[in-house]
């Protein structure tokens, strides 16, 4: 009969092997969670960029409309000056020129009212675009906060993996939950 060799392991060796297996499970779990946190963070970061761009476009639209309104108010003022000059001519002149100036005053009055209405309408549109821009920027801030919380969660997960500290893993979960919560709030419109 051939001599067979077998190894008898002591409790210390079993503890080391079990610890290694537990460490591998811990590392695998943290790696998967880090990948999940990174994916969610990337989505939140993208959404933050979208809302920031939307806010900037709305702000630009508001500025363009405000400039158009200013142009109309300048036109309003010029027509008002012409109307006042024509009204002065009505008071000072007689005859055919007087009748022409009366017609000009009436025409200027009509044009002034049209310009005023259009300028007020464009100013209201500008104010609405500014309000929408502010709301989009407010929502962008929530996306940025959610992304930051997830980045902290990723960093805490890495630290927990390197230090093999289970409590830091729970801190990572906490920041991830906070980030997801803020992201959901942003998704629902951040009213």
Based on Cα principal axes, name the global outline: rod-shaped
Number of structurally distinct domains: 1
Biggest sheet, open or closed, and with what strands and sense? Answer: none
Give the averaged pLDDT, no decimals.
Answer: 84
Q: How much strand content do the residues show?
A: under 5%
Q: How much helix, percentage-wise, in residues?
A: over 70%
Number of continuous helical runs: 3
Feature tags:
90% helix, mainly alpha, 191 residues
Description:
Helices cover 90% and strands 0% of the residues. It contains three helices and no strands. It has helices at residues 11-92, 96-163, 166-187. It starts with 10 loop residues before the first helix and ends with a helix.
What is shown here, in short?
The protein has 191 residues and is mainly α. The protein has 3 helices and no strands. The mean pLDDT is 84.
Task: Break the fold down into its secondary structure elements and pairings.
Elements: H1 11-92, H2 96-163, H3 166-187
Helix pairs in contact: 1-2, 1-3, 2-3
């Amino acid at each position: 009969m051939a001599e067979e060799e077998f190894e008898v392991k002591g409790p210390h060796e079993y503890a080391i092997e079990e610890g290694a297996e537990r460490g591998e499970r811990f590392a695998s779990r943290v790696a998967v969670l880090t990948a999940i946190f990174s994916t969610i963070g990337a989505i939140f970061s993208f959404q933050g960029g979208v809302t920031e761009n939307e806010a900037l476009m709305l702000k630009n639209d508001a500025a363009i409309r405000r400039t158009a309104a200013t142009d109309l108010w300048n036109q309003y003022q010029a027509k008002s000056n012409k109307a006042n000059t024509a009204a002065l001519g009505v008071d000072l002149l007689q005859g055919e020129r007087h009748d022409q100036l009366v017609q000009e005053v009436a025409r200027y009055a009509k044009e002034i009212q049209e310009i005023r209405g259009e300028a007020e309408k464009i100013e209201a549109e500008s104010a609405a675009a500014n309000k929408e821009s502010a709301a989009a920027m407010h929502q962008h801030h929530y996306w940025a906060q959610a992304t930051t919380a997830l980045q902290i969660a990723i960093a805490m997960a890495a630290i927990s993996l390197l230090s093999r500290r289970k409590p830091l893993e729970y801190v990572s979960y906490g920041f991830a939950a906070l980030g997801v919560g803020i992201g959901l709030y942003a998704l629902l419109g951040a009213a």
